[in-house]
Each structure stands twice: as C-alpha cells, then as structure tokens.
Amino acid sequence: MSTTIELTDGGAPVSAVPAEGGEIRCGDLVRIFATDGVEVQALQGLTLSVDPGEIVAVVGASGSGKSTLLTILSGLDTPTGGSAVVAGTDLLTMGHAERVRYQRSTVGFVWQQTSRNLLPYLTASENVRLPLELASRGSSLSRRDRARRVEALLELLEVGHVAGRRPGEMSGGEQQRTAIAVAVANSPRVLLADEPTGELDEATSVEVLEALRGVNRETGVTTLIVTHDPTVSEHVARTIQIRDGRTSTETLRRTETDEHGEARHVSEEFAVVDRVGRLQLPQDFVHALDLRDRVRLALEPDHVGVWPAAPQSLVEPVETGPGTDELGRRKTEEDR
Ligand SMILES: Nc1ncnc2c1ncn2[C@@H]1O[C@H](COP(=O)(O)OP(=O)(O)OP(=O)(O)O)[C@@H](O)[C@H]1O
C-alpha cells in the first residue's frame, strides 16, 4: 500500500494516557503561554512514561519545552491540557494543600542555579538537615536519626568533607552534589533535575551526573534529568529527545558482552510513536533526503518506507470513482 502524508500535523491533540504503572506519566501534555495576544505552544502534546526506579534524561534544543515540562512536573505550573500523574498525584486536579505536600515530600528538585538549591548562610549539613526538620512533625525520625541521615547522605554524595562549609566555600560540583543530598533528604519518590550541570565544566558535569546515577541506584528514586547536553545519554539507560514540545526519539543504551567476554556499550535510537500513530522523523533524516511538506509512504510486510514525494507532474493520477476510496485505492468487498 502506498500513500502520501503531510509532514506538518495540524490536527488537534487526541487524548493519549500512557501506560498504567509509570511513576511519571504524561499524556498529550499541552502548555500554551499567551503574552500580549501572542500564543506560544511550549508543549504540543507530549507523551512520556517513566517506570519506578528508572533514571531517564530528557534532551532538547533551546526552546524545545524542557523547562516547561519540568516546571509542570515540579508542581510550579499547571498544563493547559492533557494528563500528568506523578507518583499517583494528578497534577491537573491537585488542590493547594496537596500541592504543598507534593512539593515537600513526593518530589525533590535540583535546579541549574546552585544559588537556588542551597541557602547561602547555612553549611552543607544544615542545608541537608533543613528539609528533614521541616518534615519532622509528621516523621518518626529522632534528632539523632536526622543527624545520622545528614551524615550518611553527605557521604553517599561524597561531600562529607564540606559538611561544615557554606556554599560560597565549596566548588560548583560540591554545591550540586550537596544539592542532590538536600533533594533526596526526605526520601522523595521522584527526583527532578533541571540542567543540573549547566554551570559546570565538563569533568565536574560527569561527576554530578554520576552522583545522580549513584543516588538513583542506591535509593531507587525515580530520576528525570532535563538538559540540552547530549552527552548525558552516556550516563543513563534511556534518553528521550524532545523537539517542538513533543517527544520525538528515544535512545536506549545497554551493555553487551561480546564473544571475548569484553563488555561494550550499545546505543539504539527509536522514534516515538504515540497512540494515534504520530511520529517525528529525526532531523538529520529529514535533511538528508530533503523531506518537506509531504512524503510518500509504503507499508511493507515488516517496515514502513518513506520517500520524498515526487513532483506533482510525475505523480500518476489516482483512479477515482464508485469502485475506489478517497485515496484512489480499489474498494474491497468489505468496504462496499
Ligand atoms: N512564561 C512564558 N511565557 C511565554 N512563553 C514562554 C514562557 N515560558 C516558556 N515560553 C516559551 O515556550 C517555549 C519553550 O520554552 P522552554 O523554556 O520550556 O524551553 P527549553 O527547552 O527549556 O529552552 P532552554 O534550554 O533555552 O531553557 C519557548 O518558545 C519559550 O519562549
């Protein structure tokens, strides 16, 4: 079967609730900002599912909607449409009290600006202790247990040596690793990191990404890292690419052992197909074949072929009439 499709999709978003059981589930998430009468669609039907305990990176160019997504997942902004459920909390319908509880104990955050993560007049220990004390009314942790937990978290993040220092007396990497300890102090179910390495050099970025991976492994906290840095995919098993406010491709990374017993990393890229069959072709594929406006498709037994559409003059006129459907295909007995 062969047909031609428009590359631009002007269709209205169709509800797509992602698989049950995901710790983070977004279905056809839409966020429209209206300023001075101009509308910007920052998210245009984004679908995303992250399993409990998974560590996933969301990567995209500037303006692709990464921060908008994270601001919604952190409960600081409400989407215009679609669905977003994190650790069982429906982010579209939660009330004020639930929002406070959600931000205080369900999710932990690490932001790009180190100054947003840590209070400058408190030491590393005091910064980590603060969320524990704020939550202590409903918690069974004694004062001594809280002190032990602070120490254990700083050790886990390998920043025990800066316990008594204020942020201004630490390196950027030490500040971000302390910020991760603060974010997971109350054992949140989900850890959200927005460009956590944005202000760091390459070597320090690697340390911070490995620290996030270590915390994910040790505590099982579901972790979502949003960044423009494509090298993040070397530190996580799954990288989701977003383009124009939608998930476009996913890169899965796994370790294989070859016939000589040597471990090697294998990455595979997949296009994301939503519930109604929409997918985005990778940008380099589009450029390589100069695909624009519309493409020709063919359904083969085990794959779908995509070709640049031939100029109109070369396209054979389709047969239409009572014996054919709207695409010129011959009607079957069932159609009739
Ligand atoms: N409050 C707002 N009002 C109007 N438009 C906004 C607002 N916030 C974001 N946008 C627009 O939405 C789109 C997505 O922005 P967003 O900040 O989510 O992208 P991003 O991928 O995080 O980019 P960057 O990596 O540069 O931070 C952009 O076109 C941006 O200009």
From TrEMBL:
Record-linked SMART domains: AAA
Domain ABC transporter: 24-269
Coiled coil spans: none
Biased amino acid composition, Basic and acidic residues: 326-336
Ranges where the record places region Disordered: 310-336
GO molecular function: ATP binding
InterPro entries: AAA+_ATPase, ABC_transporter-like_ATP-bd, ABC_transpr_LolD-like, MacB-like_ATP-bd, P-loop_NTPase
Keywords: ATP-binding, Nucleotide-binding, Transport
PANTHER family in alphabetical order: ABC TRANSPORTER RELATED, IMPORT ATP-BINDING PROTEIN
Protein name in UniProt: ABC transporter ATP-binding protein
